[in-house]
Design goal:
single chain; alpha+beta; hypothetical protein yedk fold; 5 helices
Amino acid sequence: MCGRYTITITFEELMMRYFADIPSVPFHLPRYNVAPTQMMPAVVNDGRRNRLGLLRWGLIPPWAADEKAGNRMINARAETLEDRPAYREAFRRRRCLIPADGFYEWKTVPGGAKRPYRIVLKSGELFSMAALYETWTSPDGGKVSSFAIVTTEPNGLMADIHDRMPVILRPADEALWLNRDEQDPGRLKELLIPYPQEEMDAYEVHQRVGSPANDDPACLEKVTG
């Protein structure tokens, strides 16, 4: 799964990376320990150009009784997107990108303890995680737009840490994923593969990343010794 991530660039760098329109709602960057239920920047395409906006992490299906349903839907398995009612329509029509420059995962070690790792690109560059989004309307008419990160089987690097990883898209594939006119599941599924392990790196970080209250540069520090 993917339950925490980082985006440690500035707002200006984010805009330049995606050539996106300025969002109507401001948000704060950098972020060192993003957690579910938080509002985070996402990239969608309106048919003409990319747009940046804030979405709540944890997809709330349109038919959900309340927004708490999203707390259980932070990830969507690539293998079952067409089968799950919560994700089927979003997979065809409402796809987005979640910008990140790292994500955290917990490795189970002998004895049952779990140690957090940060996984990044060796280049240090920003990357895009494939995601789906929906807009839910509450009984009182309020609207909440939310997302789930798509996950796939692990590459060789990740297999030693966890049995799932987020789908990281190549920059050349981002436009296809965002294209609302593209609704061929077969073509879209070709993108939902593990990112090459030789282009990624992982290192152990401090247990403090386990608490969403800790959101500072110390979360990125490598555990040594």
